[in-house]
Amino acid sequence: MSSLTTRLSRFARPALVATALLALAGIALRISPSAAEEARVIPAPALDQPAAQGDGPQVAVIAGGCFWGVQGVFQHVEGVSNAVSGYAGGERATAEYEKVGSGRTGHAEAVQITYDPRKISYARLLQIYFSVAHDPTELNRQGPDIGPQYRSAIFPADAEQARIAKAYIAQLNQARAFEAAIVTKIEPDRIFYPAEAYHQDFLTQNPTHPYIVINDLPKVENLKRIFPEVYRAKPALVSRASSN
C-alpha cells in the first residue's frame, strides 16, 4: 500500500524525515536481515543454459516487491551491466507510478537486468532473486507493500528462460527450500516499460532514506554475505550507463 506520498516522503518533507531518521538509526541497528525479507541459502539450479562463445548481452525481467531494492541488489552483481526499474504485466498507457500503485493495471513493479551470460547465467540470477532479492512465498505483497503490483513474477524473454524458471521453482518446492510453497508466477509475452527517472538508482542515491535503510540495504548485505563470489562493491548504475 506504499504510495508516492509515503515512499517518496523525503522529497516533500525532508525536515520530518531527517528527524525520523535519528530514531530509525537506532532501530535499524537492531533489525535482523529478516526485516527486509528473510534471505537464505538455497540449492543451486539443476537446470541452466551454458553460454555460447559468441553470446552477447542477455536480458532478464523479474518482479519481487518494490523495485528500489530489487534493482539495488542486481546492480551489485558481477556480470550485470545494467538494471532498470520499471513495470511489466500491463499496457503501455498505464505504465506510470501513480496508476500502477492502484493495483488495477496488471503491472508489477519490475526490474530489467542486462547481463553477460559468459560471466553469470540466467539460472544463477534466479538463485539470487529467490534467495536475497525477495520472499517468493509472499502472495501479492513484499514487506510493508501490499497489492498485486508487488507480486512475485518472472517475465521470461523466451521459451528457454521460461523452461529454466519453471524447473527451478519445481526444484525448490521439491527440496522444501522455503517453509511455504513458492507463489512466483511466470508471465510470458509481457513488455517491460522503464519507470520514471526519479526511481532509477534510488537505493544508491538515497542510502539514508528510512524505507531503504529498513527494507533494502539488508538485501545488499545478504547478497554480499551469501554470494560473495558474484558481489561487487561498485554498482552498475542506470545514470552511468546512459551517460556512456
Automatic annotation (TrEMBL):
GO MF entry, a single one: L-methionine:thioredoxin-disulfide S-oxidoreductase activity
Family annotation (Gene3D superfamilies): Peptide methionine sulphoxide reductase MsrA (3.30.1060.10)
Keyword Oxidoreductase included in the entry's annotation: yes
Keywords of this entry: Oxidoreductase
Limits of the Peptide methionine sulphoxide reductase MsrA domain: 60-211
Its job: Has an important function as a repair enzyme for proteins that have been inactivated by oxidation. Catalyzes the reversible oxidation-reduction of methionine sulfoxide in proteins to methionine.
Name recorded for this polypeptide: Peptide methionine sulfoxide reductase MsrA
Natural source organism: Bosea caraganae
